[in-house]
Amino acid sequence: MATIQLRQVEKLFGEFQAVKPMDLTIQSGEFVVLLGPSGCGKTTTLRMISGLETVTHGDIYLDDRLVTWLHPSERDIAFVFQFFALYPHMSVRQNIVFPLQAVGASRETIERRLSEVVDLLRIAHLLPLKPGKLSGGDKQRVALARALVRRPAAFLMDEPLGALDAEFRESMRAEIKQLHIEQEATTVYVTHDQVEAMAMGDRIVVMSDAEIQQVGTPAEVYYDPANLFVAQFIGSPGMNLAPGTVAGDLLSLPGGNNYRIAPEWQETLSNTQNGAADVLLGFRPEAAEIHVAGELSGEVYATELHGAYKMLHVSLQEEHDVVHIRSDRQADYPIGAGVRFDLKPDMVRFFNPHTEAALLAKRPPPVSRREVVFT
Amino acid sequence: MSTEAKSHVSETARPAVGGLRSSRRALSDRAIINIFIWPTLALLIAINVFPLFYSLYLSFTDYSAIANQAPVWIAFDNFARILASEQMWSVFATTGQYVLFSVVLQLLLGFGLALLAREKFFGSGIVTTLILAPMMLSPVVVGLFWKLMYNPTFGYFNYLLGFDNPALAPDWLASRIAGQPTPGLALLAVIIVDVWMWTPFVMLLILSGLKAIPDYLYEAAAIDRASSWFQFWRITLPQVAPLVLIAVLFRTIEAFNKSFDLVMGMTGGGPGDQTEVVAVNLYRQAFLGQWQTGRASALAYMVLIIIIAISNIYIRNLNKMRNQS
Ligand SMILES: Nc1ncnc2c1ncn2[C@@H]1O[C@H](COP(=O)(O)OP(=O)(O)OP(=O)(O)O)[C@@H](O)[C@H]1O
Ligand SMILES: [Mg+2]
User: Fold this and answer.
1) pLDDT tier at B22 (50, 70, 90 boundaries)?
2) In this prediction, what percent of chain A has a pLDDT beyond 70?
3) For chain A, which residues make up each domain, given as ranges?
4) Of A288, A287, A270, A289, which is closest to residue A279 (Cα–Cα)?
5) ipTM exceeding 0.90?
6) Which of A12, A15, A16, A233 to mutate to test the pocket of ligand 1 (most atoms within 8 A of CB)?
7) Mean pLDDT (whole number) for A77-104
8) Is the dihedral of CA A216, A221, A227, A228 positive or negative?
9) Ligand 1 nearest atom to the CA of residue A42, by list position
């Protein structure tokens, strides 16, 4: 298994900058997810790592080997395409052994590896079929088998579940993750689905506008987003953001709300005063606790039952500044009713509205929060 | 037709609109259909269907179109005589050689050219267009034009091959080298011209097949570490195979029939009967000498049967290939 390093890797299509200079190191055996909205350059990044796309500037290393200008076949990486890219005129069996035959592997090796991956993915019954006869999930299994059979140094997967039905995606997700755990293979996985990214990634690389916004564990990007983009992109709904003005140790929020700033934030926030609405208060829906004597108040704007819990849309001020609050499934909130709530102090974040960057507390919030909560 | 149909519908839906509109639409759809279909049908029957069946009838008779005699029914005699004639077998053999060599050469060259034309290079568009030029010429013109090219005294062909003394150079169409009879040379000359003329057609068909192969297959193959050679055998060839078969089918049929113009234009079947392919022989029997219309019809039907048989084999293979992928 290999480490993958990108150093100032950039891609231009003519004048258009598809990937801005990017630095990224992926450890051996790590499962890294490239996550971002459509068109942000995820596929291009992956294709540059594979060698299917040339880089415009910068260098790519596999382990310590400089591979920037090597042909894909010389990089020892496997690529799983979004639309499978199976060879339509070959049977499943021929598809899977193709990479071995291409390098002239011996007949015994081919048979042995074939039976290994076929057992691993439970696709023995598909071997004589042509890809055209397979369901989406089976096609994906065959594509995975074709990648696995080679035992490459790294796997690159471009939205491998993008073409599958929702119910299938979940089980295939677990299957791929399981394969990764068994094989301990360095994997770079592209998706625009944040749930998938959270569920699968050891680390997530959040991309937008052709550049990296944040690199971190799922918990880090969820609880400590580096900027407004990550805060809103991760989570459904994204992080609640309310504009506020700092006055001493109080933050005045819309609707006449005043939030008492925790001591560790006071110094950071007092340095940012440069006009009205000079800070954005951010919190996840589950960071709010509804309480009759809550510090903040708003009016129920809408409610949604999400099965295990109820999501309240609460407007801080006359149908504006709506925030999402997670509440008890059974609680009943008529629309228009007033609610009061507190924020868990360790789950409150602040952002600079001008630079859009997250502000840092004087000392890191003293919390243990390994489990990720998302919907 | 479709706009006509639409306006028809909308106007029947609004019948109350004044007389001007309806008089403008004097022709109903049905009338238009009749106007187009009946003349076509009449023409088809007159020049295709009727001769087809009439010649089938004639093939079982002794009949000459210039003799003032009614056809005499002789059942299968024409067919039996053709099959028994040694000269006819030699004509079939010549035709077989002609078809085999020209189709194989066209296929190899056409495939090669298609692989080259697939690559984008500076001026690739204009080069591809130029390559297609021979195909667009009339075979008679091509025949005459190559007759000049092959001319032993002033033709360019020998000159390009490096012969500078006409006395020692091959006289292609007369099947002689330096005055010595060299059988096969004239047939080769005709095959060369057929290849020159029809390779572009094969190239065009195969090129369209090559362009239809999705890029991602080659990307997957590059990732799978397949060499160019391996990619060619395992991806390119199987993917264009159906079009190769179609090209072969077309060229085989055409080489049987349409060789006529080219051969007549260049050698008239000579020297002797060295380039006498079936199409030329057929013409000779039908329209020269005694005008053996009955026998020529029989021969024509035999060619038809051969072509149908060959086409069937190809089409079966084509379907098999389709089912596989
Ligand atoms: N070959 C190309 N030529 C020109 N522009 C390209 C090319 N390939 C990609 N682009 C552009 O580069 C940008 C990034 O594309 P890329 O495919 O990497 O996005 P992505 O993040 O994978 O998006 P998606 O989620 O839609 O797959 C897009 O704006 C795209 O239009
Ligand atoms: Mg993409």
Assistant:
1) low
2) 95
3) 4-228, 238-351
4) A270
5) no
6) A16
7) 93
8) positive
9) 21
Amino acid at A11: K
Cα–Cα distance measured from residue A348 to residue A334, given in angstroms and rounded to the nearest whole number: 27
CA dist B34 → A20, B6, B23, B26 (Å): 66, 19, 19, 14
pLDDT in tens, A114-164: 998 998 888 999 999 999 989 888 998 899 999 999 889 999 999 988 877
Residue B255: per-residue pLDDT: 82
A31-35 vs A186-191, strand pairing mode: parallel
Q: Which atom of ligand 1 is nearest to the CA of A11?
A: 12
The pTM assigned to this predicted structure is 0.80
Task: Assess contact for A157 and A175: CB atoms under 8 A.
Answer: no
Best of B215, B225, B325 to disrupt the A interface (most A CBs within 10 Å) is: B225
- The pLDDT value recorded for residue B7 is 44
Torsion sign over Cα A318, A319, A321, A325: positive
How far out from the chain centre does Cα A116 lie? Answer: 31
Q: How confident is the model at residue B17 (pLDDT cuts 50, 70, 90)?
A: very low
Give the integer Cα–Cα distance in Å for A220 and A227: 12
β-strand pairing of A154-158 with A186-191: parallel
A4-228: CATH, from 3.40.50.300, 2.60.40.10, 3.40.50.2300, 3.90.1010.10: 3.40.50.300
Please tell me the least confidently modeled range out of A35-39, A208-212, A289-293, B65-69: B65-69
Give how far Cα B128 sits from Cα of B107, B131, B220, Å: 17, 5, 29
Task: Please name the residues between 121 and 180 in chain A that touch chain B, using a CB distance below 8 Å.
Answer: 130, 132, 146, 150
Kindly give the pairing relationship between strand A186-191 and strand A240-247: unpaired
Q: In chain B, which residues have their Cβ closer than 8 Å to the Cβ of A89?
A: 238-239, 324-325
Beta bridge partners of B320: none
* Pairwise CA distance, residues A187 & A201, whole Å: 9
Residues, chain A: 375
Query: Angle of helix B185-211 relative to helix B259-266, nearest 10 degrees?
Result: 140
- Residue A373 tokens read as 């909560």
Q: Given a cut of 80, is residue A281 above it in pLDDT?
A: yes
How many Cβ atoms from other residues are within 10 Å of residue B304's Cβ?
15
Residue A42 in contact with ligand 1 by CB distance below 6 A: yes
Q: Say whether residue B212 is in contact with chain A using an 8 A CB cutoff.
A: no
Whether B49 and chain A come into contact, CB under 8 Å, resolves to no
pLDDT at A71 over 70: yes
User: Which class would CATH give A238-351?
Assistant: mainly beta
* Ligand 1 atom at shortest distance from the alpha carbon of A82: 27
pLDDT at A34 over 90: yes
Q: Whose CA is closest to atom 14 on ligand 1? A: A41
